[in-house]
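During the reporting period, our protein records have gained a structure token line. A sample record is set out beneath this paragraph:
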Amino acid sequence: MSQPRTRAAMWVILLAAAGTFALSMGVRQTMGLFLSPLNTSTGLGLASISLAFAFGQLWWGITQPFAGIVADRIGAGRVLLAGALMVAVGTFITPYMTSTAGLLLAIGILGAGGAGMAGPAVLMAAATRLIPPGRQGIATGIVNAGGSTGQFLLAPLAAALMVGIGWVGAMQAMALLVLLCLPAAWVLRGHSQHPQHPGAAAAPPRLGTREAIVQALRDPGYRLLAAGFFVCGFHVAFLATHLPGVVEACGLPTQWAGWALSLLGFFNIVGSVAMGWAVGRWRMKSLLSLVYATRGIAVLLFLLAPKTGPVVLLFSAVMGVTFLSTVPPTAGLVAKFFGPANMATLFGIVMLTHQVGGFLGAWLGGAVFQATGRYDWVWYADIVLAAGAALIHLPIREARPVRAAPATA
């Protein structure tokens, strides 16, 4: 594929990557709406069905480094094609699964695994390779915002379809909707051995996958980056899973939980795009420290404030701005440190640490509430982890961004 040389070509690439993330993530994030109908239909119990959902969270993270390795070797297009088909098939057959093992296969392995293959590791790497260097920050922000946009738009669509055609028809309609991203696989085809954008700096000699991973794991900055992303996963999964429970524990009506989740998704879009813009202007490690510090302060103020509806909505908006705004600078630092040659692989490993943190955040939130009847100890852990993440990014060695000189006539 010829490299993009026009603004129009750049936007085609961004729309392909962001659109793929919107559909794969959006459909995956709507699955929670079907938990109760699945329980009623199968009679398996919420614990067994939740196991499939929890496994999917972890499998989504495990899939990404391996998808990245394949994308770096044979091309992003083929990986995205396979991932989209897996999401569609897994989602389509879920209503026919009547056992825990069947749900693990459909929701966990096929659905979540396909979403991991068509997820941020592969998409960010493709965008980084194809977009001019000066535009890569805003590009990763736009791609990242695609996932939030998908959740924001597809959740109400799925709910409306459930009312109109039933939960089985709604789920299978979501499966077919994923197929709309198949043309993006052609737009994003190619791999890291293909020539980069003409404006890109000369890349270092390509290392084999094993050598690249060993080199990255020996790099203190990479290890600190992965540790920070673990904290991000803890925060994000706890909020995504337990924010409705937090609202209920505050004694507020159910509709406040819906509004809180909506604001969380909307301001996630705002935060992702804003962070993409900021990446090219300030050091990415400083931006990451700022995001984590903001989270910790927001949680502390929320604990101290009266638990009214407006307070909950303001808290959701602030947390939404920081929700996944860590992704553009994290992906940007991986690309900056190691170049595009093994970008999908190395960012996939960092994404895996994110999902390990996410598994713990979702699980501990429920365990702590069951044991104490409150979420307070998880909030305390949130504050400590946020402070730690804000501090551990500071030693990362990163040069200040070079500002482009203004064009002369």
Summary: The domain at 1-192 is CATH 1.20.1250.20 (Growth Hormone; Chain: A;). The two ends are 32 Å apart (CA to CA). Residues 1-5, 198-203, 404-409 have pLDDT under 50 and may be disordered. Residues 282 and 401 are 6 Å apart (CA to CA).
